[in-house]
Amino acid sequence: MEKRNIWRYGRWLLLAALAAIVGCQSLGGLELNRALLAGMNTKSVQQSLSISLHVEPEAGKETDEYTKAMIDELNATKLELQSVKMESQERMSIKGQLTVQKGTVPFHILATPEQFLLKVDGVSRTIVVPVGFNSLSDSGSSDDLFQKMRKQVMAKYKEKGIDTSIASLIVNNLPNPKQIGVSSTTETIHNEQVSVYKLDASLTGSELLPLAKTFIRSLLKDEQAVKKLVGELYDVLWPVIEPYAKNGELANMLPLGTPMYGDPMGHVMESIIETASDKELAVDMIHTFIKQGLYFALIGVDSAQKTKEGPFGEVFNDNTKVSAKLSFDRNLDLRKSELEFSIRPQSGFDGVSSIKLNIRSESWDHNKPVKADALELGANPFVFERYNGFDGLLESADPNSIVGQWLAERQYDYPELLTLYIPVAASPEEATASDAYIEDGIAYAPVERIADFTGSSVEYDKDVVTVTDAWGTVIRLMVNDKQAEIDGESYEMDGTVRKHGDTVYVPCRFIVEELGASVWYDEYGGELSIWME
Predict the structure, then answer these.
(1) What is the pLDDT averaged over residues 234-247?
(2) Which residue(s) pair with 498 in the sheet?
(3) Is the dihedral of CA 283, 284, 288, 289 positive or negative?
(4) Global pTM exceeds 0.85
(5) Between the chain's N and C termini, which has fewer beta carbons within 10 Å?
(6) pLDDT tens-digit map of 402-420
C-alpha cells in the first residue's frame, strides 16, 4: 500500500488562500513571500482550529418555514478541532467535536499513510478507512507498474523539494491587494505571550479578477523561473519513466501499440522517447505548452471580469468580501489566523441576505518534537467499504445518539447491494473449497463461488475453464496460465489460474470486475467482500 503525504494537500490549500488574500510583496518589515513559504517547510506542529458558518436572513422579508429551518441548522453548526498534533507530514491526530442543532459529537482521528482511524461518539467500534491503492479495488490505479513508478516519482519529488519550488514561483509573482497593513505587537497564543507581525488584509470580489490577471501576466513574463521549475520536474519524472519506456513496459499501459507487431502507431512511443531524452528540447516544448495555457487563462479571466450577470457577476462584485488577520512570529511561522469569507447571494437563496464563513486557528511547537495521540483499533474494528459501509455502520451505532439518528435517517438513500463474503485462509494449503487466499499481493478465490454469486455458469474441459455471464460474455481460462480470452480477445491477468485438488482458483479482482461486480479486501476481518447492485 502506497504511503501518501497527508499534509501536502492541506498546506497547498492554505498557501493558495493566504497568498490570494494577502499577496506576497514585503510590507512593514514583514517579507510576505518568506512568511508564506515558511509554512511549506513545516515538519511538525500543534494546532487548534474552528470553522463556523453564519447565514443572515433578509431583513424585512417574510421567510418560509423551510428556509428558516435551514438557516437555524446552518447557524448552529460548528466544527472545532481542539487538538491537532502533526507528528510528521505523514502522521497526524485530531481531537475535536462537531456541534449541530441536536447536540455535540466528539471525535478522535488518527491519520497515517496506510489508514484513517476514527472514533466517534455514538459508534461502538473504531472506524477504519484504508487509504492508498488497494490491489483489489480499482484495476486501473492498482496496476503494479503504475504503483512502482508513482512511488519512485514521489520519492524524488520530495527529495528535490518540488513543493517549495512551485510555491516560490506562485508567491513571487502574486501582487498585494489594495487594503493591507502590517504592525508589530504582542498576542496571547496558546497561553503564551508572543511578539508578532500582525497583518490585516481585505479585498472584494471585484478585486479578485484584476489580481488574477496581474498574476498571470507576471507568470508569462517570468519565463526563466517557469523554465527552471519545468526542468526540475523533468529531473524528477524522466529518470523514472525512461527505463520503463525503453523496455516496452510503459507501452502496455498506453494505447500506442508496439512496432514489433507491425502496428504503425507503435512508432509514436519511439518518437516520444527520442524527444523526451533531449532535456533542452523537452523543457522547451512543455514550457511552450504552459505559456499557451496561461494565454487562454488570461483571456478567460478577462472575459469573466467583463461579465456582470450570471454566476460570475454574482461572486465577483463588491458584495463579496474576503478578509484575513494573520500573526507571524519572528521566525515567520504563522501562529494565529482569522479568515472570513462573505458573499451576498443574488439568486437561488431567497430570504438570505448574506453567508459568512469564519475560520480561526492557533499553532505552536513548530518543527519541535510532537507526538500524535494514539487511537486503538479495538477487538472488532469497522472497516469502511466504499459502497456498502453505511449499512454495517448503522448496526454499530447507538440508535439514541446523534450519529445513530443521522445514519438511520439516511439508510434508504443508498442502493441495496448484494454482497458475498469469502473467508481468506492463511495460505493456499489451508484454503478449503469455500475459502480464498492471498499470495504475492493477489487474491485468489474459487471460480465456482464467484460464478454462483454473479449468476454465471462454469464449464470445464480438462484444464480449460469457461465462464459465461448472464449477458452472454464468455471468459475462457487455462489452468497455470495468466491469459484470459474474453469474447475472443486476449487479456493478461494479474495472476495465474490455480487448481488445488478439485477446486479452481482465479485472480479474484480481474474475474469479479469482468463479471460486473466489485471486490474489497477487509484485512482486519480476514475476508473478501464481493458486491453488485
Answers:
(1) 87
(2) 505
(3) negative
(4) no
(5) C
(6) 988 887 776 655 555 578 8
